């Protein structure tokens, strides 16, 4: 049963990434709220976090980690699918920054933690 749930999450994640990639490839540069264009490097994805819509560029491999799967699920519940190509995550910018910092410092240790575990850490 656990394997079926994992496969379902992977399929959903691939669908989200595929939709995002298709739409973002139509525009080489993403539109920023302040009118500036910023390039997202290959192998990375831009996500917008919090009410301020702070832009973070994260490696696409992070999107398969449990914390990101949970955040993407919450984003889908809260915002629905956004056709403009931008991925918006409903969490506080400071929390997201801590998650990214931990993953960048010691990915091997923290990649398997879920959202609940990260929340307990902070």
From TrEMBL:
GO terms for biological process: response to auxin. Belongs to the ARG7 family. InterPro entries: SAUR_fam. This is SAUR family protein.
């Amino acid at each position: 049963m656990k394997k079926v749930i994992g496969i379902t999450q992977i399929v959903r994640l691939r669908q989200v990434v595929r939709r995002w990639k298709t739409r973002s490839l139509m525009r080489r540069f993403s539109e920023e709220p302040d009118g500036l264009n910023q390039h997202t490097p290959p192998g990375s994805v831009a996500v917008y976090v919090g009410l301020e819509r702070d832009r973070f560029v994260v490696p696409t491999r992070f999107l398969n980690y449990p914390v990101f799967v949970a955040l993407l699920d919450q984003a889908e519940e809260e915002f629905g699918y956004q056709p403009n190509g931008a991925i918006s995550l409903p969490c506080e910018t400071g929390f997201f920054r801590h998650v990214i910092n931990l993953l960048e410092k010691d990915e091997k240790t923290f990649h398997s933690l879920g959202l609940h575990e990260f929340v307990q850490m902070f």
